[in-house]
Amino acid sequence: MLRIAICDDEKLFRENIKKYVLKYLSEKDISSEIDMFNSGKELLGLGTDLLGYNIIFLDINMDEIDGIMTAHKIREYSMDIYIVFVTAYVNYSLEGYKVDATRYLLKNTINFDESIYECMDTILHKMNYIVLKKYFKFNECEKNVQVDRILYIESRLHKLEFHIMEDKVLIYTLYATLNDMEREMMEYKFIRIHQSFLVNLKHIKSITGYSVILNNNQKLVVPRARYKDVKSAFIAYKGEV
């Protein structure tokens, strides 16, 4: 799953960028979370949480803290985030070089959408991004599921419930044991946080108070006996990405 931030003080451009990026990712069957910010100050207020983003679309001409200054601050946290400048001007190439910007997208151009698609093609190629799919014979249907879209798997009433993000979170079921499924999903970075829950590490936002908080803000309980191992695995995973 890709995590993307869009920072622009013009609402119209924030929404246009989000619309075109979502269209592109939908055609590629890539799951994503997109957050929007109306100023560099608001974005930088995230602090180290900026590290959770793969891509940041950044308007250059913003009040108080402009996009160039914001990009320099982002680089203090990470050199791995892909920064894409969005601007009405073309005279920032030297500054873009200093912060290793991936692209400049010019506002108010007829082919703005095509520029975004080309930009995303370039970024995914650099990331060597691969969509992993796995085939399941659910009770409801048989389908290939993008592994990144599985939030968690719950054992309930002798069945497994797969909570999968589509247009909304949908539940599919099959008959199997969670022990068997844990072994099957281990290579995809899933972790057993509870006797009844197998969770995709990619969708854990935080761990606190003997609970994991998922990216959709759902809370799942972690028993005290498992808490230390779950937290260690989460920290190790965050270190990898």
UniProtKB/TrEMBL annotation:
Start and end residues of each HTH LytTR-type domain: 145-236
Superkingdom per UniProt: Bacteria
4-aspartylphosphate, modified sites: 59
Pfam families: LytTR, Response_reg
Residues annotated as domain Response regulatory: 3-122
Residue stretches in coiled coil: none
InterPro entries, sorted: CheY-like_superfamily, LytR-like, LytTR_DNA-bd_dom, Sig_transdc_resp-reg_receiver
Keywords: Phosphoprotein
Keyword Phosphoprotein annotated: yes
GO molecular function list: DNA binding; phosphorelay response regulator activity
PANTHER family: STAGE 0 SPORULATION PROTEIN A HOMOLOG (PTHR37299:SF1), TRANSCRIPTIONAL REGULATOR-RELATED (PTHR37299)
Function comment: May play the central regulatory role in sporulation. It may be an element of the effector pathway responsible for the activation of sporulation genes in response to nutritional stress. Spo0A may act in concert with spo0H (a sigma factor) to control the expression of some genes that are critical to the sporulation process.
Protein name as it appears in the record: Stage 0 sporulation protein A homolog
